[in-house]
Amino acid sequence: MADSASSQAVVAPQFSAGVDEPALTRALETLLASAGLGGRWVLTASGEGLERSFKFKTFAKTWVYNTTYIRWTTHNSKGLSAKDVELASICDGLASDFGEIIEEPSVGAGDKTTCELKRVADRAVTNAGDCCTPKK
To answer: InterPro entries, per this entry (predicted)?
Structure first.
């Protein structure tokens, strides 16, 4: 039986127009390199964003139980931008400073809180429309 990581489709990054794709790809590889360890950064299903959950010892460190879920994506122009990748890297540093708990994932087990937060983020994106473009 194949594990869940090998059965998932590989998503390619979809970059914003005008970015330096080779440089951004190198920076992105660093963030994605540990994707299998404790919920590190992964590309969204569309490849247009980065998302990750962070787990901390207490509620006071994160404000949502003990887990924070972050998704970075650029809406105008659509796709991954240098700022998305830069902010994801900054989040990693801040999480470390705040005492992030990194757990080894169980084979075949998903993090229920992360999955629920991801669904909330998906609904927010679907319902929000394009909030970054001035209304005509």
So the answer is: PCD_sf
pTM score: 0.66
Beta bridge partners of 54: 68
Q: Which domains does the chain have, with CATH numbers?
A: 11-126 (3.30.1360.20)
Buried b (16+ CB within 10 A) or exposed e, 47-58: bbbbbbbbbbee
Q: Render pLDDT for 83-124 as a digit per residue (tens, 0 to 9).
A: 999 999 999 999 888 888 887 655 455 566 667 667 777 776
Phi–psi pair at 109, nearest 5 degrees: -100, 135
Pairing between strand 78-79 and 49-55? unpaired
Cα separation of the two ends of the chain? 53
Q: What does the block give as tokens for 60?
A: 């006071």
Residue type, 123: R
Give me the residues paired with residue 50 across strands.
43, 72
